[in-house]
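Record passed on here:
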Amino acid sequence: MKLFRILKAALIFSLFYIVASMGISYAATQEVRLSPSAGSVNSGTSFQVSVLYDVSDASKELSGVGFKIYYDSTKLLFSTTSNIFSFGKTAADSVPKDDTANGDGDAATDKYLGFAWLDLNASWPGTGQTLPLELLILGFQAKPEAT
C-alpha cells in the first residue's frame, strides 16, 4: 500500500496557533509537516513518521505552536508517540481521541492526537535549536484490511 496515499488520506493537519496574551503578533508563518511525506508501506507493516516544525523567517523566539493530527482508524492503528520535544510542552496526547466534531472537515478521518507547546516569554523553541526541529515521532501500523 502506498504510504503517501495513507498519509494523504489519513493524516490531516489542523494547525492552530497558541498566542500569548501579550498582544504580540508575528508575520512569520509556522509550518508543521510530516517526514517522510511519501513512500510505500505494506498492509500490516509498522512505520514511523517524524513531525517537523519550521518557521518562514527562522525565528526561534515565538510563543509556541499547537496542532492536531487526524487519521482514519480503519486504515491505521496508532502505536506510539516518542522523542517529544520537551521545552514548553503543554499537551501531548498518548491516546487517540474520537473526532466526533469532524474537526478537520474530513469525514474519512475519525481519530486525532493533539499536541501543544507554549512559552509566555516568547522564547520558543529556543535560540539553541536548529530548524527544522523534530517535535515528535509517531508510530502507526497499516491495518491488514486497509487498501
Remarks:
- Residues 3-142 form a domain with the Immunoglobulin-like fold (CATH 2.60.40).
- Residues 2 and 110 are 20 Å apart (CA to CA).
- The first helix runs from residue 3 to 10.
